[in-house]
């Protein structure tokens, strides 16, 4: 239709009896996730660049609730409140009449309790409205349909060509306003949606592809399922990264233990335990992800029970602390800094030892090594250092 002004009418005046009573009021004010159903619906339209104005048709009793919601919305779009009527048809008519003084070219009419409408669907409906006809999002009926009588199935209904209607439904404003005025004056039987009024008035309505997620929240179960869905979607994945560093002096000896692997060498690492700098650094990295101090807090060198202890004890304890805090170890990375011994021949064994100790897959473990280019205490072969990084996800990651 070219450049047009587009307004949206959000119908939200119902009492929601099928959803049951709730302290928040009618279902459009019930919270799903962290916000009310209607607020989420309004956000979808307020965030669409083609919508110039929004009218919310609400029950007169809800004006105070609506004022608070609109204040919290902080929307740059113009949003007007219109009093609803006894039926949806009357409510929509009231919304259309309220726009008549500054009539848009196109109007979208949407159920306030369809909060999952997407920007793409809104755009598809707008694009399908023509100067002489409206547009209706719809989903082809997937299930076999049965007609029943007195609790007994009497007929299978051919579902070909049958669709479930959704909103927003879009129309040229003047055409749908005239159709509503005529229906109000001439029809005693209320219509269930605006497309049916358009059909009655001889206005063609194009079908556009709807969306399965664009559901109307009708019952308490619908609201509960939507709440659960949003809490799953909105929940932040709590990924934490910890770093650890350790260094031990080299002294005369016949082997070093690095990342759980004994390596024959002409020197040994000096320490209260087996002085495995790789495991010590990784232990600190894991403890850092849940604020559990460092290796010295849990295994003080002043305690004689840890003299000569294998460092896999420390790493296993860190794993246990992380698990008790709700963490799942996703990755462990260790860099060993030494001039000797050569690490490459032992890297696979080191990775396997770490993976087994932490209970993670081998592909989640990395061991690297570098020299210090003969610079400093490492370069002079006076000690070996290690830097470790651990990534842990906390919370339910199932």
From TrEMBL:
<keyword id="KW-0479">Metal-binding</keyword>
<feature type="domain" description="2-C-methyl-D-erythritol 2,4-cyclodiphosphate synthase">
    <location>
        <begin position="240"/>
        <end position="392"/>
    </location>
</feature>
<dbReference type="GO" id="GO:0016114">
    <property type="term" value="P:terpenoid biosynthetic process"/>
</dbReference>
<comment type="pathway">
    <text>Isoprenoid biosynthesis; isopentenyl diphosphate biosynthesis via DXP pathway; isopentenyl diphosphate from 1-deoxy-D-xylulose 5-phosphate: step 4/6.</text>
</comment>
<comment type="similarity">
    <text>In the C-terminal section; belongs to the IspF family.</text>
</comment>
<keyword id="KW-0511">Multifunctional enzyme</keyword>
<feature type="site" description="Positions MEP for the nucleophilic attack">
    <location>
        <position position="216"/>
    </location>
</feature>
<feature type="binding site">
    <location>
        <position position="248"/>
    </location>
    <ligand>
        <name>a divalent metal cation</name>
    </ligand>
</feature>
<dbReference type="GO" id="GO:0050518">
    <property type="term" value="F:2-C-methyl-D-erythritol 4-phosphate cytidylyltransferase activity"/>
</dbReference>
<dbReference type="InterPro" id="IPR026596">
    <property type="entry name" value="IspD/F"/>
</dbReference>
<dbReference type="InterPro" id="IPR034683">
    <property type="entry name" value="IspD/TarI"/>
</dbReference>
<dbReference type="InterPro" id="IPR018294">
    <property type="entry name" value="ISPD_synthase_CS"/>
</dbReference>
<protein>
    <recommendedName>
        <fullName>Bifunctional enzyme IspD/IspF</fullName>
        <ecNumber>2.7.7.60</ecNumber>
        <ecNumber>4.6.1.12</ecNumber>
    </recommendedName>
</protein>
<feature type="binding site">
    <location>
        <position position="246"/>
    </location>
    <ligand>
        <name>a divalent metal cation</name>
    </ligand>
</feature>
<feature type="site" description="Transition state stabilizer">
    <location>
        <position position="272"/>
    </location>
</feature>
<feature type="region of interest" description="2-C-methyl-D-erythritol 4-phosphate cytidylyltransferase">
    <location>
        <begin position="1"/>
        <end position="239"/>
    </location>
</feature>
<dbReference type="InterPro" id="IPR029044">
    <property type="entry name" value="Nucleotide-diphossugar_trans"/>
</dbReference>
<feature type="site" description="Transition state stabilizer">
    <location>
        <position position="18"/>
    </location>
</feature>
<feature type="binding site">
    <location>
        <position position="377"/>
    </location>
    <ligand>
        <name>4-CDP-2-C-methyl-D-erythritol 2-phosphate</name>
    </ligand>
</feature>
<feature type="binding site">
    <location>
        <begin position="246"/>
        <end position="248"/>
    </location>
    <ligand>
        <name>4-CDP-2-C-methyl-D-erythritol 2-phosphate</name>
    </ligand>
</feature>
<dbReference type="InterPro" id="IPR020555">
    <property type="entry name" value="MECDP_synthase_CS"/>
</dbReference>
<comment type="similarity">
    <text>Belongs to the IspD/TarI cytidylyltransferase family. IspD subfamily.</text>
</comment>
<feature type="site" description="Transition state stabilizer">
    <location>
        <position position="27"/>
    </location>
</feature>
<feature type="site" description="Positions MEP for the nucleophilic attack">
    <location>
        <position position="159"/>
    </location>
</feature>
<keyword id="KW-0456">Lyase</keyword>
<dbReference type="GO" id="GO:0008685">
    <property type="term" value="F:2-C-methyl-D-erythritol 2,4-cyclodiphosphate synthase activity"/>
</dbReference>
<comment type="function">
    <text>Bifunctional enzyme that catalyzes the formation of 4-diphosphocytidyl-2-C-methyl-D-erythritol from CTP and 2-C-methyl-D-erythritol 4-phosphate (MEP) (IspD), and catalyzes the conversion of 4-diphosphocytidyl-2-C-methyl-D-erythritol 2-phosphate (CDP-ME2P) to 2-C-methyl-D-erythritol 2,4-cyclodiphosphate (ME-CPP) with a corresponding release of cytidine 5-monophosphate (CMP) (IspF).</text>
</comment>
<feature type="binding site">
    <location>
        <position position="380"/>
    </location>
    <ligand>
        <name>4-CDP-2-C-methyl-D-erythritol 2-phosphate</name>
    </ligand>
</feature>
<feature type="binding site">
    <location>
        <position position="280"/>
    </location>
    <ligand>
        <name>a divalent metal cation</name>
    </ligand>
</feature>
<dbReference type="Pfam" id="PF02542">
    <property type="entry name" value="YgbB"/>
</dbReference>
<feature type="binding site">
    <location>
        <begin position="272"/>
        <end position="273"/>
    </location>
    <ligand>
        <name>4-CDP-2-C-methyl-D-erythritol 2-phosphate</name>
    </ligand>
</feature>
<dbReference type="GO" id="GO:0046872">
    <property type="term" value="F:metal ion binding"/>
</dbReference>
<feature type="binding site">
    <location>
        <begin position="294"/>
        <end position="296"/>
    </location>
    <ligand>
        <name>4-CDP-2-C-methyl-D-erythritol 2-phosphate</name>
    </ligand>
</feature>
<keyword id="KW-0548">Nucleotidyltransferase</keyword>
<keyword id="KW-0414">Isoprene biosynthesis</keyword>
<dbReference type="InterPro" id="IPR003526">
    <property type="entry name" value="MECDP_synthase"/>
</dbReference>
<dbReference type="GO" id="GO:0019288">
    <property type="term" value="P:isopentenyl diphosphate biosynthetic process, methylerythritol 4-phosphate pathway"/>
</dbReference>
<dbReference type="Pfam" id="PF01128">
    <property type="entry name" value="IspD"/>
</dbReference>
<feature type="region of interest" description="2-C-methyl-D-erythritol 2,4-cyclodiphosphate synthase">
    <location>
        <begin position="240"/>
        <end position="398"/>
    </location>
</feature>
<comment type="pathway">
    <text>Isoprenoid biosynthesis; isopentenyl diphosphate biosynthesis via DXP pathway; isopentenyl diphosphate from 1-deoxy-D-xylulose 5-phosphate: step 2/6.</text>
</comment>
<feature type="binding site">
    <location>
        <begin position="370"/>
        <end position="373"/>
    </location>
    <ligand>
        <name>4-CDP-2-C-methyl-D-erythritol 2-phosphate</name>
    </ligand>
</feature>
<dbReference type="InterPro" id="IPR036571">
    <property type="entry name" value="MECDP_synthase_sf"/>
</dbReference>
